[in-house]
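Subject: for your reference before the review

Hello V.,

The reviewers asked for a structural picture of the protein, and I figured it would be easier to keep everything in one thread rather than splitting it across files. Below is the amino acid sequence we used in the manuscript, unchanged from the supplementary table.
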Amino acid sequence: MDREVAAIADGCTKGGHNKSARAAYMRAAAYFTVALSSADGTKDPAGLLGPTFGEHRRCFDAYAELMDPPAGKGREAIPTELRQLLDSGDKQNFARFFEEGMQAAPRAQRQKWEWRA
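And here is what came back from the structure prediction:
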């Protein structure tokens, strides 16, 4: 479903239907996010993580560019170390990266990030 919606968004962009493309890119990015969270349950999670994140980011960046005014690409906000971890599919170090980041963040920010059921 994620790739199908991304293809619809690409078609809308080519046809000049920017509002429809923007909505479809956001929807596709959300689908790719769900796919990322489900990668552990597959036979090759490491092989899926990098490409799936790349497609998520492509769709989200396209969504941001189609906002009025454009929100920009924002890729510079992703640290190089994190990009390398995502591309490598190294889940153990990926988790460590976020654990260290959570510990280094101010307490007020950590509270915003905590999951609340």
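For the response letter, the relevant points are probably these. The radius of gyration is 16 Å. Helices lie at 2-14, 18-37, 45-65, 80-88, 91-104, 107-113.

Happy to draft the paragraph if you're swamped.

O.
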